């Protein structure tokens, strides 16, 4: 309103109902909030590295699906990059799985991301806030 005040006011006068536009704007804000909330939840539940690996996997899968469904041409370098990404993500998942199967060395402190039971997997707030509230 401050920058484009006259254009917004003219738009209000030229349209019969502003409710559809307001619903779209409000829905866009709610969806953006949900996206940010889900990103923070994923990073909280895993790690930032896992989140970035998942993002790279998403891009590679999007390129491959676009090639399969829409027959978009991809270059040799794109195909090699997708293959390297898929192999790297698979290897990362394998290594993470193997590390999760090993018991921690004696004397290793539990990190905030190490749940003590299944209930701790559910909330966003963990024991980092104990004694601060």
UniProtKB/TrEMBL annotation:
It comes from the Eukaryota. InterPro entries: EmrE-like (IPR037185), Sugar_P_trans_dom (IPR004853), TPT_transporter (IPR050186). Residues 20-92 form the Sugar phosphate transporter domain. It is found in: Membrane. It is a multi-pass membrane protein. GO terms for cellular component: membrane. Its main location: membrane. The chain crosses the membrane at residues 20-42, 49-70, 76-95. Pfam families: TPT (PF03151). Keywords: Membrane, Transmembrane, Transmembrane helix. PANTHER family: SOLUTE CARRIER FAMILY 35 (PTHR11132). This is Sugar phosphate transporter domain-containing protein. It comes from Salix viminalis (Common osier). The lineage of its organism: Eukaryota, Viridiplantae, Streptophyta, Embryophyta, Tracheophyta.
């Amino acid at each position: 309103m401050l920058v484009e005040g006259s254009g917004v006011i003219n738009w209000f006068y030229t349209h019969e109902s502003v409710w559809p536009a307001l619903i779209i704007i409000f829905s866009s804000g709610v969806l953006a909030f949900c996206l940010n909330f889900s990103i923070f939840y994923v990073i909280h539940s895993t790690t930032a590295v896992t989140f970035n690996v998942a993002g790279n996997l998403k891009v590679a899968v999007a390129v491959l699906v676009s090639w399969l469904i829409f027959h978009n041409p991809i270059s040799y370098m794109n195909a090699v990059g997708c293959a390297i990404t898929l192999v790297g993500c698979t290897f990362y998942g394998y290594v993470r799985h193997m590390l999760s199967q090993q018991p921690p060395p004696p004397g290793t402190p539990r990190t905030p991301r190490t749940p003590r039971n299944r209930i701790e997997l559910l909330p966003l707030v963990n024991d980092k806030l104990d004694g601060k509230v």
